[in-house]
Structures
1.
Amino acid sequence: MKRAAASLLTGALLVTVAGAPAMAQEKDVIILKSGTGVVSGHPFFELVETYNAENPDVEVRLDIAPWSDEIWASLGAGLASGNPPDVMRVSIGGAAGQGALQSPLLIDTSEYFTDEEKADYGAGIIGSIDIGGSSVIWPQDLDWGTQLVANGDMLEAAGIDVAKIQSEGWTFDEFKAAAKALTTEDTYGFGTSAGYAESLFLDLGWRAGTPDGSANMGAYFWGNEFTLKGPGQVAAATLLHDMMYVDESMPKEVTGLQEHMPLLWSGRVAMINYWHGAVGEIKAYNESIEKGEVSGTPADFNVVLLPYPYNPATGGSEVNLNRVTGLALFKQDPYKGDAHTQNVIDFVRYLTTPENLAAFANWEGTIPAKASAAEFSTMLSEPQIAWWADHARDHAVYTFPYGHPGYAQVSSDVLGPNLTALLNDEKTPEQFEADVTAAAEPILATWVASNADTAAEWATAPEGWPGIYLAPLAANP
Amino acid sequence: MSSTSLAPGRVAGSGPDPVGTTSTAARVVRGVVKVLSYTVLVLFAIATLIPFIWMISTAFKPNELSMEMPPVFIPPEPTLKNFEVFFKQMNAWRWIFNSVVTVSIITLGHVILYTTAGYALAKLSFPGRRLVFGMVIIALTIPLYVIVVPLYQMMFQFGWMNTYAALIIPALVGPANLFLMKQFMQTLPSSLIDSARVDACPEWRIFLRVVLPIAKPGIAVLAIFTFMGYWNGFFWPLIVTQTSEMRTLTVGLTSVRYGSFDYGSLMAGSLIAAAPMFLVFLIFQRYFLKGLTVGAVKG
Amino acid sequence: MTSTPASGKDHADRPPGRPRDPIRRLLQHRLYNEWFWAYLFLLPCLAIFVVFLVYPAMQSVVYSFEAFNPLQGERRFIGLDNYATLFRDPVWWTAILNTLIFTLATVPFSIAVSLGIATLLMPLHSRLQTLFKTVFYMPGVTSAVVIGMVWLWIFYPFSEGLANYVVESLGGERINWLGRSATAMPSIILMTWLTGLGAAIVLYMAALGNIPASMYEAADIDCAGSWTRFRKITWPLIKPTTLYAAIIGTAGSFLVFDIVYSMTKGGPGTATTTIVYRLYDIAFGRFEFGLASASAVLLAFLVVGFSVLQLRFFSTDVEY
């Protein structure tokens, strides 16, 4: 008993002694929070470690978790309790989900940008992070959505002029014909999966003239009006349906697949809808097979990126997303003081130096937002991705950063099942469009009725809508 | 099943056949039916077994072979590569650790809580006994899904979100286990306890020295079922963990699924998740089979 | 009471040392001691029940009358609106229908087939019995997630899936099992048939083993046929087991979630959306806690209601 007490005392003493220096110093603590795809190897770990070593009077604590709804929920909880993280990596849409963008605790970053920084980002990016007069994030990287990823060898063999498509784009009909030409006995021209079908459909509908939203965040429904209807939708539905059941250039098994990338990897389809990171993913996969880390057949074909087709017949044109991801900065309540805020700004500046920004973007597989970071970017060193970045920028349009909150239910209850029925040949494209409209409008109306305040925010569209959303912006002012 | 008075060669339960009154045709039909039913039985068993065989073989096969048809059940060159990949890719070790630690603590908690409580309900008399038992019955009818939303909120309020506390403490709720232990304790002879009481043995001593030793089989059943149930538990750990580091093995597996077309490592992980349970089942079989019957079968 | 010399073991005629002080007498009274320990033993687990079970259950009811979205920070009383929303929601009814179909398709089948298999196994050698019992019980000790992944391979829509391989070998065309609304739920049902038998088989074997052979011998003497034996002797005697299996099985089927989540995510469309999956979607997909709680309350009613119905229906002559 005595011995136990003695060891307990010694232990307590040691702990106090060890803890004392830490307590004596009183560092300013900065909390950096982020979601991620994969945790291990995330660049923030090293960046934070280096910063802490070089700045002994500050301690940055890193809180990383895989992307999930709970990340956003915890941000919301933090804001509600007056204790949000100092810095959090956000997509504007995600942050909007819990009212972060209207929170008085959000720091207006435009108050801190220098002129050089603004020029480095470019007016297009600065403009797209401006919501209601204040800049809501400190930009890190860009998201230009998905496009078509293709097996270049197959395209060549079928005589398809990739260069022409990459410079001039292609219409629905041209795309459909190409898919048919690429279909042989063992391969299909195009493939997707149940999980990606909806975003594919929205992307096509948008480029067929339907006012929509970023396929990742959902529709806008400005004026609280259901907009996913009309000839553009029918055209997109017809394209997909006919590819499956008339041309048979797309496998019917699509609705039973959870992911479709393996279809491309294994050479079963010639084109899929995916993101530009596919280039890097295939490379990494091949490398790890070579190194013997993973067993499998390497995907040894020439990867080519192509734009989605558009449909001029229904008023569509070649347009593209313009979305910025970055760091949201928050104050706490009670306010920790200007010195603390300055520490936070300094830290954020450190994270967004051209080299660090590029390192981060490289790991994420995205494109850095600053022009000065381009030379360090491995993404942009890939010719296909460099092409895609230019193309996307040239065709970028104003995109509101987040979708209408009523969209979620429309998507899961109406669009999802009906799209599945369309792809299973249980509905014609016209039926599909009619059924979706008939079912979605009441849902939207109910949502508006029960969420009057939020609905009021969506009552007026930005000036010039939908025109500004259906045609590329003039070259960045 | 004794068969004392049956004619030799007849298996008990095979149907009455007073000698001489059944035609050959009926006997043939009976025989055919028997053969058919046993074939069906074997087919069912095989159908149940095949997915597991495939899982095990895919875990040890190089990836190219995993999707081949007809299925290659015995890999020509078994490899441990998939396990390597599984452990390298994500927080696999951490997941296993989380599962082992949380489930062990939960099981220990259940054993302590419900052995004592079950004993109290079964063998001790005290005012309010009926009330407590009634409450247990009511608690039995409330599935997790009905309370998951407020429980989730509670985790936020307590600040337990994404911590071991959230994984362990709410999981200590187990009215079914309380019921099980009560039923079991009731089968223990009261005479032992009574005579111990007469000997002026204090209650706690009675519990420790008299009851526990003879309660071992019941406790074993409780422990095994509880461990297995929570090891395979999915819904609660899914919503209450936010970072990959805190996930349990079962939940972590689902994140390996997406972004990986590598069936090999997926099956390797699945095997690691399932193997402990197989082993536990095989070793402690009679407890499993015994435990299932408590409460369901008379006598 | 004769006065005999005090011997340590002879307590029959000497009450345990009777203290003079009435309070001490109370404290040492057997009953008091018993109560104390009873409460002590019961307190921790009851406390946990109250905090983590009973209180949340009540909160669920409270939430169900509110519009409560934690992300948007709103929370206000709206009466029965959530229930009205559910009643008007076609997907909610689809979920109920899907769950009912699943339950009706799996529970009776499982019970009947398990009983059949148990009967077939009874005459076998005990080693063989254990072998079969183990094989059938294996899926029961495996998590639904693992089972789901393996069966995703079986149901892979192209020719590399085992099911399609079998179908095509028999001359058929490959089927998009989990992709088409018509085949998605049946696929899950089929999978449940092949993975959910173990527990009931073990139960029935124990129950069948408890039937004394003398019962059957008596029947033999009366020249009863197989079917009559079953109907008049076996079935009534295993009724408690059947009741137990039915109630547990039905409750479990009503609550099916894990398998849907790991295989189809409620899809295609809403073809495999079950009640609990819908609850999950509303609660953690849309963060509408109020609406989700309303669905939880309704779910509770359904589960309890069915259990009570089954108890009524089956247990007219079953004693516990």
2.
Amino acid sequence: MPKTMPNSGVKGRFSVILIREWERQMSASGCCGRLEGDFLQRRGERCFPERRAVMEAMGPLYRDLRSRYGDEVEIHVVDPRNLFTIFALILRDARTHSLSAWKALRTLFRIPVTGVVVNGQLLARGRWPEFSELKEVLGDPKATREEVVSGLA
Amino acid sequence: MSALVLMVLGLGAFTAGYLLYSRFISEHIFRLDSEFRTPAHVQEDGVDFVPTNRWVLWGHHFTSVAGAAPIVGPAIAVIWGWLPAFLWVTLGTVFFAGIHDAGALWASVRNEGKSIGALTESVVGQRARSLFMIIIFLLLLMVNAVFAIIIARLFVQHPTSVIPAWFVIAVAVTIGYLLYRRGVALLWPSIIGVTLLYASMFVGNEVPLSLPESVFGLGPAGIWVVILFTYAAVASLLPVWLLLQPRDYINGLQLFIGLGIFFLAVLIARPDVVAPMINSSVPEDVPSLIPLLFVTIACGACSGFHGLVSSGTTSKQVDNEKDVRFVGFLGTVGEGSLALAAIIACTAGFATLGDWEGYYTSFGAGGLDAFVQGGGVILASIPGISESFGQTLLAVMAILFAATTMDTGVRLQRYIVQEAGTIYDIPALTGKGLSTILAVGCCLALAFGSGGGGEGGLIIWPLFGTTNQLLAALTLLVLSVFILKQGRPTVYTLAPFSFLLFMTVWALLTQLRGFYENEQYFLLGLDAVILVTAIWVGLESLSALRKAASESSESSA
């Protein structure tokens, strides 16, 4: 795992793909497999508690990224069942950040159910990295925190 | 006529509908505004609310709305001829489903990402919310019975599908273990899983498995129904990561592979449509085209389920309000394409009109069997795919969709029974065991209550479609009230709402008489309950619209 991305000179924006499942049933199950929402909401229960836990665990990392980097980093949160989209995003990022075909393929074959891809390369798999780990790769944000917050608002 | 023409006309209608009608609705009725701060931004938390690129979101949305139902409905409905089904699918997708799905998405985006159930309460009222929950309950009750019968019939008609359909459970459990417990990367298990699935189709093709003609007085389909519910009961008790979640991956891949292969095959084969344009000599038991067509095809033309998806998770991810058009309308078009594929398979996959008529001998008799039979013939135009393998492939695809839905359906019904146990303080019902038995018992009663030893259950299909349309009508009502309160024209939502409600009530009355004459009292009772619910929706709509109109005129004064 590279400590810093090879493209720190950046042609394009930094790209972070956060891969995790939405808590509901999805793929082609399909029009009739989505009845859980309102019923379970009333009970305060979840059909997919493990997925929910992963979603909630990702929240702080996402918020940190957004609040510190604002629009300097393009963030995509993608469900791994949306495999074709993940492929497209990784191939685009690999092209933008001049990764070799081998490295792009390597990332494609290592896509996890839960993990983080930065600029076309896998940074973390099966876990959410600490923000400091991401910062090490992305570098310091250019804008000050106040500028980012006012930009987001 | 060549099926290719039908395909081009259908896809052309979807494209024109997207380019013209959806633009008009988006600009003049929804007035989508790129400056509006969507809930994904206002409530951005990285958990539920996440601004998402519209292509990514479309991928999520489409794979969530597609399934077995847009295949089943059109496959049954072509018994009236290909034209009615084709017109309802194309026009329904553009003028009904498009505005329904995108509208539910827009209304949710404009109301803090609330689900359509919550919106029903806040926009229409508390009574309407109760109505919504009743409709959902009825849908749950029927979905399991309907899909069990559909799978059972496929097993009987296409015994080559038995081995792959059950083998996929082992594949899914293995994938589940590798993905969720061993942390293996996604692509390898997916590729290996799908390869194994296709390998098992070859095995199934060589080794078809059929059940005995009669066991305890039940025919093969009846026995399969019992086996399937036993499976669903066990599957619903397993942790979701073990079977249900990995099935999601396999289904997603199958959806894209199946749809892609099928349209490729139509391009190569260019088969002729042999079914009549309008069938003037339908079998005796076939009900009148109007109103039954409009409830036989729900998913694929207009489906209330989509409102649940649009307002459930999709609305919380809309980055720019203008994306509502792209995601909502094009998601609908994706589902319409699946229905179009089903129409082509069921009308052009037969050598002669006589062959086609041999399948459509009674209402519900063709259905998925015809889709698999006809689709297999079309798929055989692709080098390397035999007709019987093509049929196995399509049968397994439909079975996988339906079986996953059964797993979820039984699980949710168990939750409902457990909730009742808690509310009424019946400890025995709060556990998993008895509640699952009760949930499955209800489904079995419905499956066998429809007659024919569980084999005649497709009679339920129009009732299922009716309830689905009621849900769509309720969503369109919410949308109409919301639009009316903003002083904008409501004709584009009220017209489909009125049409769906009218056709629903008419279809229920038609079926009520049929059930009475055939002494199917269980279904008669169910029909009556849905009819009362439909009338309730009508009354509620009058009250809500009158109130909204007076509020709107007061505010403009």
